Amino acid sequence: MISLAEQIDVPSAPERVWEVVCDPSAVVSCVGGAELGDYHDDGSFDAVLMVKFGGIRVKFAARVTLELLEEQREGRLTARGRDGQGATRFSGTAVFAVTEDPATGGARVAMNGEVNLSGKLASLIESGAGVVVKKMTREFSEAFIQLCAGPAPIEAVHPAATVTAAPARPALWQRIRERLARLFGRRRPVSSAHPERSASSVPSASSQGGRS
To answer: 3-state DSSP call for residue 40?
Structure first.
């Protein structure tokens, strides 16, 4: 088992920090080697994380659920999945909270959690987890603080109560637009494959004049 207990002091307003925390795509952008996948009807989403343990790179695929308490600015994240070869399975849970730091007026993000592993690579991952987690936490903290310092989005989405958070949709619409672009991109050459047929179907100005 891998235990997590981290705290990040962010020199930004708690409201702004909470906005970022509520956006899975924003949080994932702060994690090196991580990517978001498909969203599901129940509010969960897929994610992939590439981690290096010693000389071995392990790619994990997970199904993630994010639950948020708006008023308390608290949340719970659960994930379950396995590595790309199916040699190691994992399940993890983390709880986090965003609070105000009265001394600075900024925010403090506290997180506690644990990850349970089983399979061939479990012992290797657990033995190197301390160094890996420390490095990832440092890199994440730097990127997260920088992101929170940026401009707030025009429309911030907050769940009104305890909910399973629906991740931000722009990424989904982007994928739809890309698929439509590829679809129509393939169709265009079909209409121009027989230019002589297209030309013959439209009477020319001279032929029209001849009929008159």
So the answer is: coil
d(CA 130, CA 17): 26
Phi and psi (nearest 5°) for 32?
Answer: -65, 135
Q: Please give the pLDDT value at position 182.
A: 60
Lowest mean pLDDT among 89-93, 109-113, 185-189: 185-189
Pull the structure tokens for residue 192. 């121009």
Query: What distances in angstroms separate CA 27 from CA 63, 91, 114, 200, one per listed residue?
Result: 16, 19, 19, 57
Distance (Å, rounded) from C-alpha 168 to C-alpha 170?
A: 6
Give the global pTM.
0.66
Tell me the torsion sign for CA atoms 1, 54, 147, 39: negative
- pLDDT, mean over the chain: 77
Exposure string over 116-151, b if 16+ CB within 10 A, otherwise e? ebeeebbeebeeebeeebeebeeebbeebbebbeee
